[in-house]
Amino acid sequence: MAEGIVNAPEEFRGWLLKWTNYIKGYQKRWFVLSNGLLSYYRTQEEMTHTCRGTINLAGAFIDTLDSSNFVVTNGPSQVYHLRALNEVERQRWVTALELAKAKAVKTLDFEDESGGEDERGGSGCLGDTFLVGLKAKLKELTSAHDVVNKNSLQLLKIISELEEGGVGVGTGEGGGGGKAPSSPRGKEKLGHFKAAATALVKAAQEFVVQAECTERRWSRALQHELSARAQLQENMEKLAKEMHGLEAEARRSFPKEEIGPLPLPRQDSVEDRVIPDGEDVADNGTTEDGGDEEETFFDAVEMSNDELTKPKSVSKFRGKYLVCYPIGNTHIVFHKSGNHYTWNKVVTTIHNIIIGKLWIDQSGDAKITNHTIPGEEANIKFHAYSYFSRERQRRLTGSVTDESGKTHYVLKGHWDEAIRLAKVLDGEEKTATLSEFELAWTNVPPKPGHEAVYGFSEFTSSLNEPEEGVAPTDSRLRPDQRLMEQGNFDEANKFKQKLEEKQRSKRRKREALAAKAAEAAAAGDSEEAAMLEKEATHVPLWFQKEYDPLTNTMMHVYKGGYWEGKVRGDWGAEFPDIF
């Protein structure tokens, strides 16, 4: 049974069954929830020395499967399939996890806002903390050196007295009262001890000197880095303000009718987000017969799509930039070769949100896995933009490996220009003999006027054309979108505000129901909590959430109904009122 700790109300602990593998199945584990972290141990005694695993709830997802099973995941590498003893126990754990997650997210947001107010000040505090820690360590080493030096001097003094003061070190005939000669063995031991003590003192002195030099070198390097960063930040802000002033002056210099109405923010449908991926894959992804070569070309095509796609993501606004963390994985199956691939998107950062020219950067690691051929995968690294790097920006590198870890292909290039690949002829990846790099993908110049359609390709733009027989929830039926395309910007903006307020009210209603469900669960009314939780949870019409064994995550799987309704021309009366 789970039990709350009286002295530590933010802590929750108890026994749960955790899925281990297909041989052992569910095994009993001791779980501890504390400070936004969920950790588990084999026994309670292990808490003092061995932690078997920990999940940070700030970025975790908690899914309830049935009356006793639930899943806690923080990415493909951390998935806990858990089982409680009964439904009441499961609800207590889920409620505690949700509350801990909400608190962890709130704390994280507060730290991000505090850290984002003054990036230079934050870096300075970090550098000061590092220097303070280094100086404290140096002080400890100096004290230890003084103690060793003092003791060594005393020891050497005693040794000299033993040798010269008439005290026998070994066994001799006159060892009773007068000066007795030392034995050869005693002299040898004393010599060894003196040499060891001298070497110890010398090593300690050298270490202290080296630590002092290192501390001074690090201090100078850090001060130089902070000074350069502060200067660069100041120059960038001045330049952004000047550009903003020039744009404002240009707008004041021309009549409003010559400038035209200001466009509304971009409105993406699901098709708009997905089609840039599918377009290149459909055109180029099936030209190879299969195996490593197919995966290599597919890697290049897919990585290029990060140039223009906007994935489903969790976003964090940092004041000057917006960071989008993509959620989930994407599946694709090539019918010609039968290969089934999955991959993840990398992090997208949008800079100059407030002032200046907007620009986008991609960073992080993408992993593409071929589930048809065991062990075949590609790892692509998007190198983050850096003001101090000598390399050309927007760079990516990667490789394709087999089950044994052997590299067959290497990739390099820039995700906004071109990507090239080469076959590994012999040797390891870093010291391998490669074939000539050949072009795998190149950026296609946009069509004239692409700025007016948000940089979409011609094919993607054509998907926004009205079509008869679409579902009532299709984004092409949004009245504000049609009004905007017809040039009625004022009416479109008014309708857009009404639509957004309608969405916010629905969200607030669900949040209120979820809070009531948590209160009911805390009060021990599991039936009422389950009913409120079900009412607060959105249920898709054509998809259901299932566990994906390939990626070890939860995903939405199509359950049917859309294409059948489109063929019949009858969508029924189950549609939510979203417009």
From TrEMBL:
Region of interest (Disordered), ranges: 497-529
PROSITE patterns the record matches: PH_DOMAIN
Family annotation (InterPro entries): OSBP_sf (IPR037239), Oxysterol-bd (IPR000648), PH-like_dom_sf (IPR011993), PH_domain (IPR001849)
Domain annotation PH: ranges: 9-102
Recorded GO CC terms: cytosol; perinuclear endoplasmic reticulum; plasma membrane
Biased composition (Low complexity): 514-524
Record-linked Pfam families: Oxysterol_BP, PH
Gene Ontology molecular function: any one: sterol binding
Keywords assigned: Coiled coil, Lipid transport, Lipid-binding, Phosphoprotein, Transport
Coiled-coil parts of chain: 222-249
BP GO annotations: intermembrane lipid transfer
Membrane-crossing residue ranges in chain numbering: none
Family in the record: Belongs to the OSBP family.
Protein name stated in the entry: Oxysterol-binding protein 2
Species assigned in the record: Geodia barretti
